[in-house]
């Protein structure tokens, strides 16, 4: 058993099985159900066709705008062109491309978890990501979620490498990955600053060294975002780094999504004006209702259920008791976050910090299960790490012989192997 532990091929074989399972589940889902098309997908389709046929980039309009970032629409446009959208329905091809994206994300989840907790932590996290129902259902949705999750986990992996190696090139690559993530979903932009603030506090690096890495990370982000920013300056005559969409923020000011509560007069006002007035009136006249909505109310919407994609028939269950699996991942992730916060000067705590910032950020907007889809890879990684830490504690407490083969065991030569290989 000891020799098996330090050889790479069994690990590669197990990872291969997990990846094949992940790919098969996603392909089987895409091929075996009738997929519904969401409201947003309809408008993405109109937008992409308008871009290809008239050269106008605009969402829900015929004049150029920056309502949505271009990452996903440009991906759609590329597929439309490749398959000749006038002759073929491009949606099935987009779904199969998202099968590849979702499967790649499983591999990145493995790499992150393995880097933080060792081989078995990586394999457990990859297995959980491979069969988590929401990750599979979302491959059928022509929406940003699958692409955003892939790019965000890629950023996290590259950022951990940059923190470990302290090389400018790695920091720049992480920044570039963040730029691609922001072009898909703009709410991630502030996380790069949060990451380096954490790094400076955790590593006790000199401010100059941390600032150098941050500078190269921002450079990578800026290089990726610059074509979009320049387009907005030239076409819209304003500086727009991400997007100008206000609706998610404005819609978030309606407790329990009661959009006809009549709290303020909306006539003749912009969405932002209505939103700010609602916050002012709401917190002054109904403080308990609004305080509850902006805390436990939105948290319940965000985390209590899985995102089911755009819908499909017949129902594709993926695994039995998927709802309980989701709750177990959520519970294990929360417990692991609390444990890691006790000893936060370690790379794994970065995931806890980013998860916390993402959660707080989303409390400002309308709560939707899909908006928190990208938090689930982080919860799976943290939960897997916490699970292995718990096994380590049990093994040490009861002096079980197999404790030496867990991460941190004295006969676990896997630690050196893990550090020097890229598997």
Describe the structure.
Its main location: membrane. The chain is an all-alpha fold and 423 residues long. The protein has one domain. 68% of the residues lie in helices and 1% in strands. It contains 18 helices and 2 strands. It has a two-stranded antiparallel sheet. It is globular, with a radius of gyration of 23 Å.
Summarize the structure.
This protein has one domain (2-420). Helices cover 68% and strands 1% of the residues.
Radius of gyration: 23 Å
Number of domains: 1
Uncertain regions spanning at least 5 consecutive residues: 1-6, 407-423
Can you list the strand order of the major beta sheet? 1-2
Task: Give the oligomer, counting copies of the same chain as homo and different chains as hetero.
Answer: single chain
Helix-residue proportion = 55-70%
Q: How can the largest sheet be summarized?
A: 2 strands, antiparallel
Topology summary:
Layout (H helix, E strand, L loop, with lengths): L1 H5 L1 H25 L1 E2 L3 H16 L16 H13 L7 H27 L1 H13 L1 H5 L7 H21 L2 H17 L6 H13 L3 H30 L10 H5 L19 H15 L1 H17 L8 E2 L8 H21 L6 H14 L13 H22 L16 H7 L3
Antiparallel strand pairs: 1-2
Features:
423 residues, globular, 2 strands, two-stranded antiparallel sheet, mainly alpha, disordered N terminus
């Amino acid at each position: 058993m000891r020799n098996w532990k330090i050889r790479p091929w069994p690990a590669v074989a197990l990872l291969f099985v997990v990846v094949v399972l992940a790919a098969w589940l996603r392909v089987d889902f895409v091929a075996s159900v009738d997929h519904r098309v969401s409201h947003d997908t309809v408008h993405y389709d109109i937008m992409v066709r308008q871009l290809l046929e008239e050269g106008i980039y605009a969402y829900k309009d015929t004049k150029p705008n920056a309502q949505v970032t271009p990452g996903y629409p440009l991906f759609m446009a590329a597929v439309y062109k490749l398959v000749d959208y006038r002759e073929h329905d491009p949606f099935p091809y987009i779904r199969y491309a998202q099968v590849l994206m979702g499967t790649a994300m499983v591999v990145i989840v493995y790499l992150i978890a393995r880097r933080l907790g060792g081989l078995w932590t990586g394999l457990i996290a990859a297995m959980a990501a491979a069969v988590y129902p929401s990750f599979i259902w979302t491959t059928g949705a022509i929406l940003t979620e699958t692409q955003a999750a892939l790019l965000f986990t890629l950023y996290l992996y590259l950022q951990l490498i940059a923190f470990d190696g302290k090389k400018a090139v790695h920091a720049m690559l992480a920044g570039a990955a963040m730029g691609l993530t922001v072009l898909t979903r703009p709410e991630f932009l502030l996380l790069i600053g949060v990451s380096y603030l954490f790094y400076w506090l955790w590593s006790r690096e000199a401010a100059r060294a941390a600032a150098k890495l941050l500078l190269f990370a921002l450079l990578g982000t800026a290089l990726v975002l610059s074509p979009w920013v320049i387009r907005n300056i030239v076409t819209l005559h304003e500086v727009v780094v991400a997007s100008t969409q206000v609706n998610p923020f404005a819609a978030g000011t309606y407790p329990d999504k009661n959009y006809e509560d009549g709290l303020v007069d909306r006539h003749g006002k912009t969405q932002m004006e209505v939103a700010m007035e609602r916050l002012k009136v709401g917190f002054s006249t109904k403080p308990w209702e609004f305080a509850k909505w902006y805390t436990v109310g939105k948290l319940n919407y965000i985390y209590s259920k899985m995102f089911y994609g755009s819908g499909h028939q017949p129902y594709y269950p993926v695994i039995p008791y998927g709802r309980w699996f989701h709750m177990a991942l959520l519970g294990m992730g929360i417990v692991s976050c609390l444990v890691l916060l006790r000893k936060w000067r370690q790379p794994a705590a970065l995931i806890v910090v980013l998860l916390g910032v993402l959660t707080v950020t989303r409390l400002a907007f309308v709560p939707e299960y899909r908006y928190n889809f990208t938090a689930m890879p982080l919860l799976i990684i943290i939960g897997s790490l916490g699970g292995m830490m718990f096994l380590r504690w049990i093994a040490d407490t009861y002096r079980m012989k197999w404790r030496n083969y867990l991460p941190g065991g004295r006969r676990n030569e896997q630690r050196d192997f893990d550090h020097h290989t890229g598997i």
